[in-house]
Amino acid sequence: MDGPIERPVSWKTLYLDWRAVGKYCGPGIVMSLAFIDPGNLVADIQNGAYTKFDSLWLMFWSTALIFYMQTLASDIGVCSGKGLGSHCRYNMSGPVKNSIWIMMEICLIGSDIQKVLASSMALQMLFQLDLLYGCLIISAFDFIVFWTLLLKYSWTIQMCFLGIIISTMCVTFSVLSFQSQPDAAEVIVGIVVPQIPSYAVLGMVASLGSVASPYNLYMNSHMTAEQCTIDTSNHKWIKEMKKYLRVEAVFSLLVAFLINIMIAIPFAQTYFNKDCAEAAEGPFGYQPPGTDQCELMVENSTLCCAEVGLADLANDSFSKYLGDSGNYLFAIGLLASGQASTISVTASGQALIHGFHQRKWNPLRRQTFMRCFSLGPAILLATSPSSPDVFIQLLNCLQGLLLSIALTPLVRFSTDEEIMGSYRIGNIHATFLTFLNILCIGVSFWPMYVEYPQEWQTALISVFLATILTLNVFMYISNKQGKVVKLDAKQSDEIMVPQ
Among 26, 265, 44, 38, which Cα is nearest to 163's? Predict the structure, then answer.
């Protein structure tokens, strides 16, 4: 890119030049895909079914915190010309760097397993296919999409494809939301007024992991760094790019937030019942009379309660409320969510392999590598008698647990004057991020201790917690060859951004 677009007004005004918006778009859109993936859908479904609208305010503030963290990640890419992964490679010792990379890859593979399972459930809802065949079909479809679209066509065509995915989700879930006829005032109160009923605590904590996506911070910083050749001495250019990246991030995350709201609303309207939510063995969602999915009968009533998840929807549970059309609409939206997840984790995987190992992998090679590890477990889960929803929930918790593996490097490099120069964040920001890091570790491990109280389970969780804390300490103090490396030169990568 040649430099900032000249305008008769200062960059500090609210004036937006749409040429500049188009010039810098891309990273924010791809980043937002991680927040409408199947893991988030499951969290939205259960938040609606178990808490009604009581958790909407948490969804809003979680999105706001994600915007704050993603902004800092993109600032590192803009101001230094390198992403988080590259800074880890240059500034941390080999064992620490490789530990971070392995944990992020585990998150990516887990997210891909989520995607394969959710997409196969969508095919089951649409065509009554067995989950095993659904896993194979969706993997073949992904290969064709990456081979024909992401390798053969321009960035503009790729952005159009992303637009179709996001538009499909907006249309299908908004129709479902309006069909359920929610009370608008009740929804607004749920977004604005913080409230934490006793039956909603564990669900709210678990939902934090679904929006964490720690690998997404590495991807966003890498994509902004690779989007153009940055002259770090040109402050006007840097300020303009930061401004329009923020505009794109706000718009993209706002759309993702609205999609998540629209997913939660129909399930809040159809499945929420306070008696089921407050059940001692719960929380549960309400089930219609005559269903064979009843797990608990409320005492002194004929009220039937059961867990709610994607597996239940695949068994036509949702169609009993909104008819076959509602079932089909949700399945189409779920398929679109799966494709969004595929693009998000592939872009993140490219960023990780380039940042930590300086290797250039195209989208097809990266997606094939990841699917080699995820398809087998997905097939095992699809053919197992237990519900796949349990694994999806565990992965959401895992992402919350590993968020600190992205937050700690973010704090370290954002405060490093050798890397950020005059754009380094101050002590107040650093203190807030450190507090947020500690809070995320605490709220992510607490439900694990509650859900798995057996002695051996508690010991295993404690070992994992000690590992995470130890790695956090080494990420702060580890220096490659005892010094911080000043990065000036840029390297290009074949990633899904305009070159």
Answer: 26
pLDDT number for residue 69? 92
pTM for the whole structure? 0.87
Most confident of 206-210, 330-334, 456-460, 481-485: 330-334
SS3 for 197? Answer: coil
The SS3 of residue 304 is strand
Q: Please state the separation of Cα 4 from the chain's center in Å.
A: 31
Q: Cα separation of 260 and 60, whole Å?
A: 10
What is the rounded distance in angstroms from the CA atom of residue 187 to the CA atom of residue 230?
44
What are the distances in angstroms from CA 288 to CA 177, 224, 301? 20, 49, 13
Say which DSSP state 289 is in: T
Helix (H, G, I), strand (E, B) or coil at 305: strand
Question: Which of 271-275's residues contact partners 24+ apart within 8 Å by CB, and which partners?
Answer: 271/48, 271/49, 271/308, 272/48, 272/49, 272/50, 272/51, 272/52, 273/303, 273/305, 274/199, 275/301, 275/303, 275/305
Token pair for residue 478? Answer: 């580890």
User: Is 3 in a helix, a strand, or coil?
Assistant: coil
Are 362 and 353 spatial neighbours (Cβ–Cβ below 8 Å)?
no
Domain boundaries, given as residue ranges, for the chain: 18-271+308-477
The Cβ-side half-sphere exposure at 264, using a 13 Å CA radius, reads 28
Buried b (16+ CB within 10 A) or exposed e, 47-77: bbbbbbbbbbbbbbebbeebbebbbbbbbbb
CB atoms within 10 A of CB 423: 18
The residue with greater pLDDT, 260 or 157, is: 260
DSSP state of 368: H
Which of 140, 123, 110 shows the shortest CA–CA distance to 34? 110
Nearby residues of 65 by Cβ (< 8 Å), 6 or more positions away: 436
Taking a C-beta distance cutoff of 8 angstroms, is the pair 41, 313 a contact?
no
Hey, what are 4's tokens? Answer: 């900032």
28 CB burial (10 A radius; 0-12, 13-18, 19+): buried
Torsional sign, CA 247, 253, 256, 262: negative
The answer to whether domain 18-271+308-477 has CATH 1.10.287.110 is no
Q: In which order are the strands placed within the sheet that holds 296-297? A: 285-287, 304-306, 296-297
Residues 243-257 have pLDDT tens digits of 888 888 999 999 999
Peptide bond into 95 cis (omega under 30): no
d(CA 470, CA 292): 48
Runs of H (alpha helix) within 52-154: 56-80, 84-91, 94-127, 131-145
